[in-house]
Amino acid sequence: MIPRDDTSGPRASSREILRADGLRMFYGSREALKGLSFSLGSGRVLGFLGPNGAGKTTAIRILTTILEPSSGSFAVDGVGSSDPQTIRRKIGVLPESLGFTKSNTALEHLTYFGQLYGRGAKEAQTRAQALVQEVGLEQRAKSPIGTYSRGMRQRLGIARALVNDPVVVFLDEPTLGLDPRGQKELLALVHRIPLERNASIILCSHLLSEIEGVCDEVVILSSGEVVASGTVNDVVRQARSNAMQADGIRVRVPSASVSKACQLLESLPEVGAAVPLRGVVGWVGITMVESDDGTPRDQHDNNMILDALIRADIAVLSFQAEVARLQDAFLHLTEEAIR
């Protein structure tokens, strides 16, 4: 997982680079987007989450000026949505379908797009060479794109999205179809863009580990509405305050043993609460009693919990000594929409 900067770290920014206000979209009588509002600072990464049909694709199409909203507005770097031509020169987009000409090389492809954005031939070629190096394709820059792997094509797609030095880059499922190593390498590239360019990113993905690993903030959509927004930690806390119990330690036992395990663990003086987790069969969420000096519980308490379960002949199928994760929040906040 790529380390994610804290909101107080170097990627924090007070300059607003994108703002959406009350975006709504109707397809006939169906309202696909219901008043989307959020803001994004310069050099920040925002994760867009939601189950299928939540409104993510509609929102991205509006923000990239492909669709005009039924109502509401947005602005990119101070340019209002009434001026889509100027906005398009300020954004970069990695679509799900890349549409490469397979016989072209990466250098030819990027040079062509550089010229489309108004650069002269020599300047566009120089810029193309810098971009292939930036995304790690310098060894294959003169090879036909048709010979590229999926990961290489995704890297080229990101390079194309950066041709015009955008202030906001939209990445739609950038690691889709990649193996674990390819995912890790591409996410490392995504992580560098805000740090090296101070460009903001809106990242759409179904892989929550991606969002949690590289995003500063998230927006979770469900049935066209925003059900949570803020930093990853804020969203997890919001979900937990709405009765999602997943803080501290989690242990999985056979479903028939959940009740017995909860009773046993709550009898331990170090345990404040032990309850079944909603939506995940066999998992028990354990909240420890805070120590006298307020410091976190240590490995001794983990061992104590495991020892108590084993002595009671309760099989331990899995054990996680970690705080609540974004996946738990997502499942809880979108529970009604995916039933």
TrEMBL record:
Family that this chain belongs to: Belongs to the ABC transporter superfamily.
One GO MF term: ATP binding
Top-level taxonomy: Bacteria, Candidatus Eiseniibacteriota
PROSITE patterns: ABC_TRANSPORTER_2
Organism: Eiseniibacteriota bacterium
Record's keyword terms, sorted: ATP-binding, Nucleotide-binding, Transport
Protein name: ABC transporter ATP-binding protein
Nuclease recorded as keyword: no
Every ABC transporter domain range: 18-248
